[in-house]
Every structure is written in structure tokens, then in C-alpha cells.
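During the second half of the funding period, the structural biology subgroup turned its attention to how the target accommodates small molecules. The most pressing case was MRU, which had performed well in the primary screen but for which no bound structure existed. We therefore specified the complex as follows and requested a full 3D prediction, including the ligand pose.
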Amino acid sequence: MKIQTITWHRGKIRIVDQTRLPARFCYIYLEDIVQVFRAIRTMQVRGAPALAAAAALGVVLSARKRRTKNIEALKSQIDKDIQYLAKARPTAINLFWGLERMRRVIDSDIYQTKEGLNNALLKEALNIIEEDKRVCRKIGREGARLVRNGDKILTICNAGLLATIDYGTALGVLYRAKKEGKDFVVFACETRPLLQGARLSCWELQRAGLDVTLICDSMAATLMQKRGINKIFVGADRIARNGDVANKIGTYNLAVLAKYHKIPFYVVAPLSSFDKNIKRGKDIPIEERPSFEITNLFFKKPITPKGIKVFNPAFDITPHNLITAIITEKGILQKTEKRGQSKFRKFDF
Ligand code: MRU
């Protein structure tokens, strides 16, 4: 069965509920923007590119549900709903990128009737979905050039079909390499606390027939030392102008370990993950999530003493000097050396 994580289905948004995987594969239907907001916040839909599509379709729902006197009042209501959806999660730039594309439609003077505006908004949201499919496949082709027979590849979180529309970024590279007949194995970090690696990447890689082995996050160093990991591919939630990357918590750990073990560290992301307004990683907002995700969520009983203080950042920043290259749909962004300092070539947004 071919999976599409997000579809427009008879006036509703149909998403794969990622909180139920791998025990259950099921779709749920979102009918208004409060449901879209909740699905994003609770990570029923997650992964940077998927957030862009879910939010864009959320704007379509907003336009259809609002009852207003005239088109200007409608546009102003949609604008409020866009601001509301933008608060669902702070780190992945793709969420704001998707909403910004929708805002450009409402800002345009071309649409002067409710019907015209509704159609244009739906068209734009569906464009975002179709573009994601094409872009991920392009990224996959670029990245697969780096994969060799016999590779032992490590990844973290889920940057696969579930995090996009139907293919993936970091995992898209692996799907493409497999399609080209390359013979390699994959190790997936479980990705505490929400286990996107264990639950989602393992599920989709296994389903696609890739050779995948699960490890606890704390086993990565030993894996590099003893099992000869020779490449790391990860996704991104936001990339600053200098090439610093925000991605799932634990990515930075892997990058530091990779440097010590001299393993190439590749970030795989669409151009929509680049934030041209942010100069360096430390300016990227990092989401902090509730403590129960660490103390209770996947356990029948709490595993910690009651009232324990918890620090639960959902993302970390990998400095650009730990990154070997960034793989995008426009090619592989390599670093250049200047006076002993390595920098990413200036990117043409
Ligand atoms: O908190 P999540 O599960 O939404 O985090 C997702 C990631 O960190 C992914 O690596 C990133 O969004 C890239 S997905 C192609």
C-alpha cells in the first residue's frame, strides 16, 4: 500500500495518526483549525515538511468555515487563523513557510469572491503537497550519490515518508539508494523521549524492505567504535544562514561523536527548511515540551519520582563546523575552506 500522510478528502484533512504507530496504522480526519492545531501540537502529524502541508490545508478549512459579511472581513479572519496555527510549534520553519505561502494568496487582490479565494487557497495547499513529493525525490537522487555498497548508515528521529508527504528527506536518500540496487545497512536511534526512530523510522524502513537495526540513543558511540558506522544522514527543522542546523534532540550528540570518529555527517533538507532571516543557530527558537513525555508517556506507570524537575527540549542545534554537507533538491551544499576556517558556500535563496 502506498501511503500519503496528508490528503484533502471531501472537505476534510485526512492524516495518518503518527501517535498510534507502529501498533496501529489509521487515518484521522480534521474538520476545523482547532483540530489541526491540536494534531500538530500533539504530533499526530509531525516532521517539518509535513507541518507545512498540514498547516496550509488548515488555512483552507479556516476559509471554508468562516461566515463573514464580505471578502475583506473573511481575509482578516483567515489572517487571525494563520497567526493561531503559527503558534502550534515553534522550531520547524516549514510550518511558517507553508502559512506564508497561504498568506500570499489572501494578500493578493485577484480573489474578490469567497469562492474564488477558497479555490485559490486549496490550489496553493495542493501545490505544496505535490511540490513536496517532487522535491523529496530530487533530494533522494542527490543524496543517493553518496551511498556506497557496504555502507553502515546511522540516522535519528524520523525524516522519512511520515515526516513529509510520501517519500522523506534523509530516509528518501536511503529509499533511492536501495532503488538503485545499492547494498547497505541502516541503524536507527530510538530518539527519546517520543521515539520517532523506534516507532516510525523502524516501521517505515522495515516496511520498505531495508535492513534496519534499532539502537538506544546512548549506544551511538559504541556503534561507531565497534560496528564501523561510516555515514550519518539526518533531517532538519530549520537551517540558519551560516549552516547551523536545528533538528531533533540528539542530533548534535551524533555530530560531535561523528567528528571524533571521523564519520561524514550529512544533513538532508529541502530549501523550505532554510531560514534566511536567521544568521546563526543560537537564534533559532527551540521548543520545550511537557515533562510527562519523559516521565510517563510510553510507560504504564511513571518511571521517575513524583515532582522531579525535567528539562525537555525537543530540538538541538548542530553547529555548521560539524556538518560535512547539506543535501538539498538543488544539489549538495559543500563547505569551502578560507584561512583555515570552513564555511558553507553562500546559498542563493
Ligand atoms: O518533533 P518532530 O518529530 O516533528 O521532529 C522531526 C525532526 O526533527 C525531523 O528530523 C525533521 O523535521 C526533518 S523531517 C523530514
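Two results from this model are relevant to the next phase. The longest strand covers residues 331-338. The domain at 6-136 is CATH 1.20.120.420 (Four Helix Bundle (Hemerythrin (Met), subunit A)).
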